[in-house]
Amino acid sequence: MNARVYVEGGGNSSILRKLCRRGFSEFFRKAGLEGRMPRIIASGSRNDAFSDFCTALNNAAVGDFIVLLVDAEDPVDPQDLAWDHLAKRDGWDRPKDAMDENVHLMVQCMEAWFLADKEVLAQFFGKEFNRNALPGNSNIEDIQKKDVMEGLQNATRSCKKKGKYSKGIHSFLILEKIDPDKVFLVSPYAQLLIQAIKEGSGGISEVAGIEPPQS
Question: Which residue among 3, 11, 20, 86 sits deepest, i.e. has the most Cβ atoms within 10 Å of its Cβ?
Answer without folding.
Answer: 20
